[in-house]
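I would like you to sit down with the pair of lines that follows and say whether tokens and residues agree.
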Amino acid sequence: MARYEIALAPEVQAPPPTVERLKRQLIAVVATLEMVPASCELRASVEESALSIRIDDWRFLYTIDSRRSRIAVIDAAL
């Protein structure tokens, strides 16, 4: 698996333990996504959409850019 940068928007102010859990989960998501063939429409759809994940009581919105090996967490809410 390629190493991914995880970039948090300044608005993301979740507690550090929650952010660490988030990062581990996002890496797991990317590892699973990389098992999907590049030609599959699912991969294209994931890369063109904002996704959400729940960690503790927080909901995070993120995008994946495989070409740049980057996950951008763009919003967080309780």
